[in-house]
């Protein structure tokens, strides 16, 4: 699981990584506009982007919610879309704070996760 809380966090991904373009696009639309001139982005107030990797979906998401026991299937999704081979799943906690999960449309997705993603998929 990779988390992107600042525009510079894109450096966690190689430019050749298939997730790089979709992650960079989300950072430029969701994080960069709210980054202050001093380079600060308040991720605790506004949220961040999470790239799910193989093995992340079978355990509680304590990297995101340290005190919680939510798994990926427990999240109350606002909406999910499929774009360029990646699901983008949106969780909104309130009017200000949200998380975008990027999930590869990969063979390693379990049947239950795939069914949940498709169930919430925006037409």
Describe the structure.
With 123 residues, this protein is α+β, with helices and mostly antiparallel strands. It has helices at residues 20-31, 43-46, 111-119; strands at residues 2-4, 47-51, 79-83, 86-92, 98-104. A hairpin with a 2-residue loop joins β3 (79-83) and β4 (86-92). It is built from three helices and five strands, in the order βααββββα. The radius of gyration is 14 Å and the shape is globular. It has a five-stranded mixed beta sheet.
Give a summary of the structure in a few sentences.
The protein has 123 residues and is of the alpha+beta class. The chain is 20% helix and 22% strand.
Rg result: 14 Å
List the uncertain runs. Answer: none
* Spatial strand arrangement across the major sheet: 1-2-5-4-3
How would you classify the helix and strand content by structural class? alpha+beta
Number of strands: 5
Largest sheet: 5 strands, mixed
**What percent of residues are in strands?**
15-25%
Residues in helices, as a percent range? 10-25%
Gross morphology is: globular
Taking the alpha carbons of the first and last residues, their distance comes to 27 Å
Number of H/I helices: 3
Mean pLDDT, all residues: 88
Give the H and E element order: EHHEEEEH
């Amino acid at each position: 699981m990779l988390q992107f809380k600042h525009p510079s966090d894109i450096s966690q991904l190689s430019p050749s990584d298939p997730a790089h373009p979709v992650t960079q696009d989300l950072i430029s639309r969701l994080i960069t506009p709210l980054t202050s001139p001093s380079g600060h982005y308040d991720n605790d107030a506004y949220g961040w982007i999470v790239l799910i990797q193989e093995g992340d979906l079978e355990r509680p998401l304590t990297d995101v919610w340290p005190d919680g026991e939510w798994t990926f299937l427990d999240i109350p999704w606002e909406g999910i879309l499929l774009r360029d081979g990646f699901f983008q799943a949106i969780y909104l906690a309130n009017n200000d704070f949200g998380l975008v999960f990027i999930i590869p449309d990969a063979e390693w997705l379990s049947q239950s996760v795939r069914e949940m993603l498709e169930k919430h998929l925006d037409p």
